[in-house]
Amino acid sequence: MIVENTQTQMRKGILEYCILSIIAKGEIYASDIIAELKKAQLLVVEGTLYPLLTRLKNNGLLTYNWVESISGPPRKYYVLSEEGKIVLEQLDKTWQELVYAVQTAIGERK
After folding, report:
1. CA separation for the pair 20, 33 (Å, rounded)
2. DSSP bridge partners of 80
3. How many CB atoms lie within 10 A of CB 45?
4. Is 100 in contact with 92 (CB distance < 8 Å)?
5. Of 3, 34, 70, 78, whose CB count within 10 A is highest?
6. How is 60-71 classified by DSSP, letter by letter?
7. Rg from Cα positions in the chain
8. How would residue 22 be classed by pLDDT, with cut points 50, 70 and 90?
9. Taking the model in full, what pTM does it have?
């Protein structure tokens, strides 16, 4: 139980960073974000993703465009805002610092 809780908290902690990184590659539809996260073995359901996307948009990190679809209603495609790009650069730096810190801390154990 303790391990599962810690694993869940670790994944939650990096989920926004991963979502921003995926969106930084180019305009993307929500289901494609989920597919990318699943490919990375960060399983996420729509009920988790949409509130995160809304929060990121409300914080000014994302914008979206409506694109007509031939197979149904228009689709919302997400892109990083200029502020989102700046935040992502800061998170990239933080991630590198964390990777170094963790590798240094556990390096002797392996």
Report:
1. 10
2. 62
3. 9
4. no
5. 78
6. TSEEEEEEEETT
7. 16
8. very high
9. 0.88
Stretch (H or E) spanning 79: strand 72-80
For residue 78, give the 3-state DSSP assignment: strand
- The pair phi, psi for residue 27, each rounded to 5°, is -50, 135
CA dist 80 and 56 (Å) reads: 9
Rounded to whole angstroms, the Cα distance separating 85 from 62 reads 9
The stretches of 25-81 forming alpha helices (DSSP H) are 30-39, 46-58
Structure tokens at 51: 């509130």
Q: Which long-range contacts (CB under 8 A, 24 or more apart) does 27-31 make?
A: 27/65, 27/77, 27/78, 27/79, 28/77, 28/78, 28/79, 29/75, 29/76, 29/77, 29/78, 30/76, 30/78
CA–CA separation, 16 vs 34, rounded Å?
12
Question: Residue 83 is which amino acid?
Answer: E
DSSP 26: S
What residue type is 51 in one-letter code? P
